[in-house]
Amino acid sequence: MTAKTHKSTTVLFVRHGQTATTGSVLPGRAHGLHLNELGQKQAEQAATRILALGSNRIDAVYTSPMERAQETAAPIAKAVSKQVKVLQDLNECDFGQWTGRLLADLRRRRGWQQIQQSPSTFCFPKGESLLDMQSRINAAARWLTHNHPEGTVVAVSHADTIKAAVSHACGAHLDMFQRIVVSPCSINAIVYSNEHTQVLTVNNTGDLKELVSS
Predict the structure, then answer these.
(1) Cα separation of 78 and 95, whole Å?
(2) pTM of the complete model
């Protein structure tokens, strides 16, 4: 019997940096939202932290098509001498009619508690369900694993998509994903392999020393 070859890919999921609406508005896929000054600094710091892993260790840098994500990916790609590649499946959740609404107003809407307590049952009006969002980000992870075997890639995305990826990688139900915190420009490292999946770090905003020998 031939032994199955063990292959693994490390995906560094990076949330985009802060914008003028972070924490107050649900921007979704609305265009024209850019990093603010703090967000730009966060992106530069993320680039420095990832570069410390070794520029030759990063195979590729992918990003959501949203401007704030591309602006976060740009300094990372420059630091590791790679081109930024847009991957549609890294996009923000489609919040439909909730796009651009104030979070303070949304918290009073029917459905808000459902999102907090049983998100797997919720679909945004004229938008995407959270289950579909999780399926999409998992498809992105499979695509990255297939195209970068034995490699390490950066994937710049959004809070909810990354939380959904981490939840799935941990073997937790999507209804648990609101318990995960993913801060602006945090790095969340997941190893995908044909044997098992390992979560190396979540919401990391410091150094990545624990990943150097991984």
Answers:
(1) 31
(2) 0.94
